Task: structure prediction
Amino acid sequence: MSQSHVIIIGGGIVGCACAHRLAETGWRVTLIERDTLGSGATAAGMGQVVALDDSPAEFALTADSQRRWHALGQANPLVHEYTPCGTIWVASDDEELAMAAAKVPNYHAAGLQAELLDAAALYRHEPNLRPGLPGGLRIAGDAVVYPSRSAAWLWQQTGGTLIHAQVSTIQAGGVTLADGRHLHADAVVLATGSRARDLVPALPIRPKKGHLVITDRYPGFIHHQVAEMGYVKNAHLADVDSVAFNVQPRATGQILIGSCRQYDIHTPEVDPVMLGQMLQRCLEFMPALATLSSLRVWTGYRAATPDGQPLIGPHPHQPGLWLATGHEGLGITTSLGTADLLAALMNHTPPAIDPTPYLPSRFFAPTSSLL
Amino acid sequence: MPSYDVIIIGAGPAGMHAAQALASRGQQVALIDDNPDAGGQIWRGVNNHATQPARAALHSPHITTYYQTRVIATLAAQQLLVETPNDAHILHYRHLVIASGARELLLPVAGWTTPGVTGIGGLQALVKAGMPIANKRVVIAGTGPLIWPVAAFLRTHGVHIVAIVEQQSLVRLARFGMHLASHPRKLWQAMSYATQLIGVPFWHDSQVTAISGTTHSTGVSIQRGEHQFQLACDYVALGHHLVPNLDIAQSLGCATTPAAITTSDQLATTIPHVYAIGEARGIGGLDCAIAEGHLVAAVICQDAPAIARWHHRVQTERRIATAIAATFTPPRLPPLAADTIVCRCEDVSHGQLQHAPDWRTAKLQQRCGMGPCQGRICGAATQHLYGWGPDAVRPPLRPARVATLALLYAISPTAE
Ligand SMILES: Cc1cc2nc3c(=O)[nH]c(=O)nc-3n(C[C@H](O)[C@H](O)[C@H](O)COP(=O)(O)OP(=O)(O)OC[C@H]3O[C@@H](n4cnc5c(N)ncnc54)[C@H](O)[C@@H]3O)c2cc1C
Result:
């Protein structure tokens, strides 16, 4: 029996992870990327692998993915720069500390480590936080990776064909490239991140712009990814521009500083006011950042969906087209879980977690093709 | 917010003369430079009769000097974010003059990351900053007209110059000499260097192929035609021409070529209210920089007779500069070994880079250009070695404190 052939559009972390998993499960894979592997949002992101319990769907996918990263990272720590530094969510008042306390049993129920920190424990872990904070939540299993390299590595394991080109249209049984070539396949996977609507305009995806700053090397300045508890409230749900304190120790000793979110801005330029607001917020939580030397600022786009969950599964109206996009600010983390889910759906094998919350069909009216 | 009629970026000969000429016409001027003093990379701290009067004039009440100050970002509504050693400011201008000069093109060669190896301008700067160098043995190698004044400078500081190693042929150097001969002032300058360098061994058609030493440079290997030979030394100064500093202009959106900021013959860039003078307008040397400093002041103040006079002078100087530049062929590199480091901030070797398809891939996969030099050194090298294009310029234009960038929250995005 000849091997089924899948074309994957988009060589970000999600496309590369899907290619990797599909190749592992017997598909012949072709990857089409217009830029270089692991560019796009994958190059722009922070690379935090984070288990978030803000909704059951988000928790299921991030927890599953966190475990997969742990296995991948431990096996090959140098390639992925896998650093199991954990996350500390900082509570800024007693109400947030109570929220943090309430999360602990959730994580434990999912088999993940979680530890409530009082003020003394918080400052023992992260002495550079501003004084007067009540405590926080430490998720020890979270990690940091270097996503661009992980993406290229995942792809290299497949032995597939990489085509450096832009896809201009998708049709039944294949794709057409900008240079006019037609490519045929049994299945097509759309993994173009925030650009998904270029090829499938009806998808409910909006770009959410973010800025990040990287500093020179300050080993030991922080030891965990450190973010404010309000991050999720400020960042994921709000439909307006927002900033949140979120800093990360890179394997190199550099500090990555975020984060901010702006809707429907399509220019990649640094927005000075937004950058300034983001850094002011970070200085409120960590005044010692003030004198660190920042080397670069960049921007990137998250692919946001209306309910905050990604689109993973068949396009309800285009047979043979599969979606793996809409990962918002969690696509580095959830790429591995996404790849496993998508492959299970395409192979008709049992998935590791319930795929229902991520199925694209939730945004489409039932077909009326029988009329 | 401090506001100025004219902000001049760069206090080298071009910027100093522009400041002086503008102040003498009553303009309020801010003069910004990264260095601790005016004078520019080459002439700072050197007693030079051509630049001395302009330097003295910087004490004018019309001129505010910002030394040790870096431009971090160009902002909307004619504002700049600048950082001083202890502070940061947002400055407003009516006219902006870019006199940002040039920096050395530093190209990799085996052993170039050994301590004791610098650029020729870099070594000169270290000596000006007080590094003891008397009686040290120095090899100066590379190509370009900058080699001579720096060699003469080092010699006056008691350096034992082991050799000057120039990749150009004698024929080309003779042509260079002939160009100078037709301009008496420049010939005189060259002769004075030549007298200061009497007795220094000079190797033309020659190239440094490797630098030896582990904790410090101890010698160089030189290739001349078929012949290889070694010289012992304490320091190696490499110079491969200059590259203009274009990042501020690019950040403003001005058109540039790899060799210069694009300007009209009245020094206007393609962005309103922004002018470029001196080396940033194309490598042209001291006299050209001075003339352009005067011309830009005349243009900004709409002083027609002065415009006519200085315009003529600038045209002449630029013609000479072009002719001189043409006598020097672009720098050549000996074949690099795979383990030669190209990006010294991130320790990326030629072997890791030579098969990368483009700079973006090299950056993402190898981190080439991602260190504290912000790709300023290896960017020029990878362009030369692999033909990779430069990136879009983004703030911070120089490494900046987090607190400096945080100031941006309060800027006005539009003109007042
Ligand atoms: C500032 C910021 C911080 C972030 N921090 C984190 C974090 O800490 N942790 C985390 O888990 N996630 C984080 N994310 C989110 C994460 O980066 C993304 O969710 C993830 O990278 C998405 O990967 P992707 O493969 O779907 O998209 P991308 O990486 O954007 O890849 C899509 C690829 O498709 C290619 N492409 C597009 N159109 C075409 C076409 N027509 N033809 C051919 N190729 C095409 C593009 O060139 C691109 O390479 C962050 C995002 C941002 C912006």
In short: Chain B has three domains: 3-103+243-326, 106-240, 335-407.
